[in-house]
UniProtKB/TrEMBL annotation:
Residues making up the signal peptide according to the UniProt record: none
Domain of life: Bacteria
NCBIfam families in the cross-refs: PRK14875.1
UniProt KW keywords: Lipoyl
InterPro entries, alphabetized: 2-oxoA_DH_lipoyl-BS, AB_hydrolase_1, AB_hydrolase_fold, Biotin_lipoyl, Single_hybrid_motif
Gene3D superfamilies in alphabetical order: 2.40.50.100, alpha/beta hydrolase
UniProt keyword Transport, yes or no: no
Residue span, Lipoyl-binding domain: 5-80
Protein name, UniProt field: Acetoin dehydrogenase dihydrolipoyllysine-residue acetyltransferase subunit
Source organism per UniProt: Pseudonocardia eucalypti
Length: 365
């Protein structure tokens, strides 16, 4: 294949993604693309996301038809300069279709989680990328896990080493959260930096994870090169009210009927709550120790129906770049007023619903 001809392929969003399908193309053959242009909406078994162009170029062929299930790595479209003959482009398309028909695709090397021992607890994490320099560490929110970064970690790993971890009580990590305090959770992140040998890292935290990474920076400012906070807990005015009904309801939900309507509050578009997403969370909530862990963490998040965390106070003495990004349709934690916040079109789970906007703000992608 000519080096001038480039394939755009089905991305791998998350460890468990094996296939996806194009729902809608936003571009047409003959369009000139810039890096980062929206190409298509792609649906996985967990959630839909928007695929960006990984590079600039002339879109010569669209290969993937909407609605067709394709394996990770399948060719979706072909870019090539205008001077490249149609016959050369058609040969690449024919090769891609033959590769698909042969069943050659779908056997890519699986990325497996690793385990770190931190403060006597087993912490699960996954690493993508091997770029030199300071790594990026992604820290999820209350009831989330490392897989919530499925649309963020892989694109970031093209230019950075990126670690996503499960906090104690979450995902595949040990369910013991100790006293469940912010200090305990911050200690886990600091201990994790020790395990991976990172003197400093850029920390990205969502919701509870945002407060956790702020606490890390307050406790050990020399270990943090920058903070990106996504709808961080405790960032509103002191005593402001989160959706306490959601937090308590999520902690106590034990059935699909209870859980699904609550999850709809996390997104601007409730249709993004797929059956698989509900099933995965129910499976997690039924694990031994999860209920106790979530109840302990509720005491860290809530003072009655008010926020118990004061994240601005944690940041008061922190002298590193801090970016705060919020979904404009967030129903769990309202967008604070009078502070410097970047808004994106999303609900509380902005890193899943508006990942491309988050990436653009994070590193100017």
């Amino acid at each position: 294949m000519s080096e001038e001809i480039q394939r755009i392929t089905m991305p791998k969003w998350g460890l468990s993604m094996k296939t996806g399908k194009v729902i809608e193309w936003f571009v047409a053959e003959g369009d000139t693309l810039d890096k980062g242009d929206d190409l298509a909406d792609i649906e996985t078994e967990k959630i839909a996301g928007t695929l960006e162009s990984p590079q600039p170029g002339l879109l010569r062929r669209i290969v993937a038809e909407p609605g067709v299930e394709l394996p990770v790595g399948a060719t979706l479209a072909v870019l090539a300069p205008a001077e490249v003959p149609d016959s050369d482009v058609d040969a690449v398309v024919a090769e891609a279709r033959a590769q698909l028909e042969s069943g050659e695709l779908g056997g890519e090397e699986e990325i497996l989680p690793s385990t770190a021992e931190v403060d006597g607890r087993s912490i699960s994490y996954v690493t993508m990328g091997d770029a030199p320099g300071e790594p990026v560490v992604l820290v999820h929110g209350f009831g989330g896990d490392k897989n919530s970064w499925l649309f963020v970690q892989q694109p970031l790993s093209e230019t950075h080493t990126v670690h996503a971890l499960d906090l104690p009580g979450h995902g595949a990590s040990e369910k013991d959260v100790g006293d469940g305090s912010l200090d305990t959770l911050a200690g886990t992140v600091l201990g994790f930096l020790d395990v991976i040998g990172a003197e400093r890292a850029h920390l990205v935290g969502h919701s509870l994870g945002g407060a956790v990474v702020a606490a890390v920076a307050a406790r050990a400012p020399d270990r943090v090169s920058g903070l990106t906070l996504l709808a961080p807990a405790g960032y509103g005015a002191q005593g402001s009210r989160p959706d306490a009904e959601y937090l308590r309801g999520f902690a106590g939900a034990a059935s699909r009927r209870e859980l699904k309507p609550l999850l709809g509050r996390l997104f601007a578009d409730p249709a993004l709550v797929t059956r698989q997403l509900v099933d995965d969370l129910l499976k997690y909530k039924r694990l031994d120790g999860v209920s106790t862990a979530l109840q302990a963490l509720l005491a860290t998040l809530l003072d009655g129906d008010k926020q118990a965390i004061d994240t601005p106070a944690l940041l008061a003495g922190v002298n590193v770049p801090v970016t705060v990004i919020w979904g404009g349709a967030d129903q769990i934690l309202s967008v604070p007023t009078g502070v410097d916040v970047t808004r994106v079109e999303a609900g509380h789970m902005l890193h899943m619903e508006a990942a491309n906007d988050v990436l653009a703000d994070l590193y100017g992608r």
